[in-house]
Amino acid sequence: MVSVLQEPGIKLGRYDPNRDPLGYYTLFVAQLAEKYYGIPGLKQQILGADNNPNPNQLITANFPDGKSDAAFYYLSDAKFDKTPYVTLPDQINLSNPDFAGQYAQASYTTNIGQIFRGAPIQVSIAPLRGGNTRVADEVIHLLDSPEGANLLSQFGFLPSPILAGGNINTIPIALRCQIQGTYHNL
């Protein structure tokens, strides 16, 4: 699979890491792949510079975008869209909590100095300010139920606790009882 990505003329699409988490997740996967496959410079070869990707590589709308032969994509999106995909080894695909320490070796610093480190990708939801608290509560209850867990599993998500980030006091009281811990992106 790696050799295909190294072929001349392959157009590999990716998201801007300064605007979309999938952009820096892509960089993490490529950093981890360099070590896993023992190919120094692989990330640079297939993706170019971290902060200055080739504009022809950037995906700004749904894939396929007509400009790329392939793209890094969330498994859940590929399954939902019925897009063919290749599954990468657990050691690099950011899916297996057993490899969290290894994933944390990958990092990216945004153009404003914010540092993100590799970690297993988990479901994220956020009740919006001014949104319908009752509906947000129902969604969280659904995701925390066996039915929700089954639905998430069908789309490639692993079970995970409900964690809160930011100022917990801004989370509606009705939703706080669902929180099982806090999230800190170090």
Sheet/helix structural class = mainly alpha
Shape designation? globular
Mean pLDDT: 82
How much β-strand is present in the residues?
A: 5-15%
Give the termini distance in whole angstroms.
31 Å
Our count of helices gives: 8
Radius of gyration: 18 Å
Major sheet attributes: 2 strands, parallel
Strand order of the largest sheet: 1-2
Helix content: 25-40%
Question: What is the H-and-E element order?
Answer: HEHHEHHEEHHEHE
* Secondary structure tally: strands: 6
Poorly predicted runs are none
Account of the protein in words:
The protein has 186 residues and is mainly α. 33% of the residues lie in helices and 8% in strands. It contains eight helices and six strands; from the N terminus they run H-E-H-H-E-H-H-E-E-H-H-E-H-E. The protein has a two-stranded parallel ribbon with strand order 1-2. A hairpin with a 5-residue loop joins strand 3 (107-109) and strand 4 (115-117). It is globular and about 55 Å long. The two termini are 31 Å apart. The model has no long low-confidence stretch (mean pLDDT 82).
Secondary structure layout plus pairing:
Elements: H1 2-5, E1 12-13, H2 21-37, H3 42-47, E2 70-71, H4 75-81, H5 100-103, E3 107-109, E4 115-117, H6 133-143, H7 146-154, E5 163-164, H8 173-176, E6 181-182
Parallel strand pairs: 1-2, 5-6
Antiparallel strand pairs: 3-4
